[in-house]
Design a protein that fits this description.
CATH class: Alpha Beta
Radius of gyration: 15 Å
CATH superfamily: Class I glutamine amidotransferase (GATase) domain
CATH topology: Rossmann fold
Number of strands: 12
Largest sheet: 7 strands, mixed
Shape: globular
Strand order of the largest sheet: 6-3-1-7-8-12-11
CATH architecture: 3-Layer(aba) Sandwich
Strand content: 15-25%
Order of helices and strands: HEEHEEEEEHHEHEHEEEH
Structural class: alpha/beta
Number of helices: 7
Length: 196
């Protein structure tokens, strides 16, 4: 997948929080459900982002340790209520069976999505977390993909998105991915969006 480097360079020169030094790298806020998040949808993109020299913070709707569907145990750095978009360069929301229960109707998560979108900062979502973007109003008039469950596709369309049946879709600063098999490509695309 090709990305226009100059367009993204311009985007990130405007998107960096004031007072941050470029040498420090960018920071990504990953949001996961406190239970039944999809392990590889967090761990693979997180690893790619960190390998590229960027900082990662993991947030959820409650503190403590989150439990993945495949057995991962991940400490939560901050709750979504405590998180502020101004502290991060990008937002990535992880799917899994826990996303509909814990993330779809979470107003603090929707607030973060709207704040990142208003600041023209990248917002990424994978699998069953993509409806969070639709419910927050962030996909109106955009192309997006999602895990192909009828309920998730209905949520996208209800939010004004055009559903595209492919693993990865980038529309402006909005990156969506279809599910666990797309996790490596999702991580790589997120790293490209973050830039140098």
């Amino acid at each position: 997948m090709a990305f226009a480097r100059t367009a993204h360079a311009r985007l990130f020169s405007a998107a960096r929080p004031a007072g941050r030094e470029a040498a420090i790298g960018n920071s990504v806020l990953f949001v996961i459900a406190p239970e039944r998040f999809r392990d590889e949808e967090l761990l693979e993109p997180k690893r790619a982002v960190e390998r590229a020299g960027h900082a990662v913070t993991v947030a959820s709707t409650r503190g403590g340790t989150a439990a993945g569907m495949l057995g991962a145990r991940v400490p939560i750095d901050v709750t979504v209520r405590q998180a502020s978009a101004s502290d991060y360069h990008a937002l990535a929301i992880v799917g899994g069976a826990g996303a509909p229960t814990h993330l779809w109707s979470s107003e603090p998560v929707a607030r973060l999505v709207r704040e990142f979108q208003a600041g023209r900062r990248p917002v990424a979502a994978i699998c069953l977390s993509v409806p969070v973007l639709a419910r927050a109003g962030a996909l109106q008039g955009r192309r997006a993909t999602v895990f192909p469950s009828p309920r998730a596709i209905v949520e996208l369309r209800r939010g004004g998105a055009t559903y595209v049946e492919q693993p990865l879709v980038l529309d402006g600063t909005m990156l969506t991915a279809s599910g666990p098999e797309a996790a490596p490509a999702f991580g790589a695309a997120l790293v490209q969006l973050l830039g140098p």
